[in-house]
Each structure stands twice: as structure tokens, then as C-alpha cells.
């Protein structure tokens, strides 16, 4: 996927670190553009031999609008945070750190993505923020999805393989590493990278896509890493119409659609499916599905890059008008109370949103914005905000600090599971120039009554 992002850190019984990484790739390693191919069919996903691959149902139905309980989410005790000045804890030897994937559950180890020019590969490494020790888990062609599997004490990740580089066809596969890049194992072929996620039991879930230019399989699948076996769930999207009347160019069926998945913390069977037409909430036990409607001043909005609060009671996302005139509209932040369905739109000024991270107590959201781009030496390019979803107040944090920025795009920062540390990119980046030296900084975060 990767100009999409998405780390999602959820606490679901055991802590799961689910990360979708957004980063720029060098031209030689970016995901290939698809061309019409007459190549023969490639092997199907090894996890989905029994999956349904039948044609889409001719009669499609619109998913119903989600109905909420209309009970207000219980308010927490009024607190805020103080942020320390950023302290550099890691300097990249390869000039640029591509992105910060997220923390391991111990709040001591940080997963980072880089690029090793000596082997012409992207890397996945785990950094001990206390000792500075760096351990390489994987080397790969692409810079895609990564997740920590607590039960297996391993990293699961995606990588693509060219099927015919001359015409740009490729296939995404699922890999796992227990700590050695040289001994990483491919465990499933033909997965749709954007739909990869980890459920509360530690199983990897995805929709299949046998080739990058092939239709998206309509059934959600689960893969058990320990048993090395896959299972098709009851969730089947073939019957649903995902079209948006305001966007005539979009396909109505799921077969050509991108589908980003995020499991809801505290609700083991509920999964959020993000499409270009909106947000869908599905139940994998019942097969039920509904669409989340977002409106501001009675105008419909479409959402993307959604992330659950650790308690599963709020959903933060970027939104923009469904119908727009002229240039592409700017994306803004929306936070939805999933008990009432009511959205809250924090005022973060006019800056583009680069990243957002939930605090461990599910009441605060750190947001990094791009304010301006200029060659003037004193311009502030990035700003860090703290959004309190209970009081709906917004506070600017560390206004004079130089944080954020670089090739990582989405995934510029990550808040530790214990709520005490915010890891954030802090490169030396002269205005109007390329990064001269890339760093990761830590910001100590402490609650203030």
C-alpha cells in the first residue's frame, strides 16, 4: 500500500501492535504500476484453497447505515499531559529512517523501517530505546505492512514479488520473522496487503488478491501462524454495493476495490473496513455489515486512515467532503464516539495532518500537522497537538521544537503502550533541502491532573 498508512496500536486482551506503514520508496523499489497482462494465472494463496472465487452476485445491495446505542461514553477524570523536550535516542547510519512502525508491548522496544543501500533492500529493525541496541528482523523489496505477534514473539510483515517485471505484475505475500532476517519464512501467498490486520487471538486476517492486478477476493480469511493454516470467515462482501453516487468512476463491487482492515479493541468479532467510498463496520460472527455515516453541517464526508482508541470506544480518522468542487479538498480530523455515533471535529488550523496516535488511556490523541513549507530559516514547518476527546479541547504542544518530517510520511510517531513515551522522527532537515541526518527522538509524557 504504501502511500497509505496506518500503525494501529490496540489493546485487546493482550496488547497487539498492528501497524500499517506509509513511506516513500525509491523508484527502483516502489510498488509497480499495473498494466493489462495476458500472463497465465499465478498460484492461489496457500491459505485459501477452499475460498470462494465465484463471480460477484449480479444483484448488489447497499449496506445499511450503522445504528448506535445513543448512550454517552463514560467520561474519564479530567487530565492533561505535559511533554518534555525531545531527546535524540537514535541516529540513522543510512541517512534516512523511513518510518516508525510502533512499540512492542513492553514499551521498551520500537519497530522502525529503514533502507540499506548496501543490499538495496528495505529493512525492519527493533530498537531498544534504553540501550540503543538495534536488531534486524527482515530485509525486503517493499516497504509495507508490519505487525508484532505477541503470542509468537515474532514480526509478521508483507513483501511483494515480481511475477513479470517487464509488464509490472506482482504478488503480495505474508512473511514472519522470529528475529533473524536470514531465516524469515513466507507463510502465505496472494494476500491483499492493505487488508492485512491482526485479530484479538493473534491470527493474521486479510482478503486475498492472487496478483496485484487481479480482483480482490470477497471473503475475509484468517491465518493461524502456529498451525500454518488458513480459514475462511463468514464475512462475505460479494453481495454488497460499495458505490458512491458522487464518484461515478468507482466500481460498485468489491472485486477491484482497496480494502483496509482494522479490528475493534474489546469487540473480538468487529472489524472496520475502509474503502474509498467510506467506512464499513462488519461482524465476522454474524456476517452483518453496516456503513458509518459522517456528516458536518449536514454535508456528507468520506473518511480514511481510521484508528481505534485502545478501548474501542472512539474512532479517529481523516475526513474530506464526499462531493467537492475544483481542487482536491484538504483532509481534516474527525473523532467519532462509537456509542452515540456523534463526530467531533477538532480545530487544528489549516495544516495537513501527517500522523495521529492515541494515548494509552483512550482519552487523548497526539496529532502531527504540516503547517507550512518555506526556505525561510525560522519558519515552523510542523506542529504537535494534543486533542482531549472528553473535553473536546485542543492544546498545542512544544511549539518551538523541531519534530516530524522526512520520507516516512504517515507513521512519523508512536505513543508507547504505557503512555510514558512518544517516539517521533526529528531529522536535521534544512528548509528547502533534503534530510542531512535522520533521528528518532523520545518525548517523555506524563499526566497532569
Question: What key attributes describe this structure?
Answer:
single chain, 449 residues, mainly beta, 6-stranded antiparallel β-sheet, 32 strands, disordered N terminus
CATH architecture: 7 Propeller
Mean of all residue-level pLDDT scores: 79
User: Spans with pLDDT under 50 lasting ≥5 residues?
Assistant: 1-30, 32-57, 245-251
* Total of DSSP H or I helical runs spanning 4+ residues: 0
**Rg measurement, Å:** 21 Å
What coarse outline follows from CA principal-axis ratios?
Answer: globular
Number of strands: 32
Structural class by SSE content: mainly beta
The fraction of residues assigned to DSSP E strands is 35-45%
> Mind summarizing the main beta sheet?
6 strands, antiparallel
Strand arrangement within the widest β-sheet reads: 1-2-9-10-11-12
- CATH superfamily descriptor: YVTN repeat-like/Quinoprotein amine dehydrogenase
* Distance N to C terminus: 41 Å
> What is the total number of structural domains?
1
CATH class type: Mainly Beta
CATH fold topology: Methylamine Dehydrogenase, Chain H
Percent helix:
under 10%
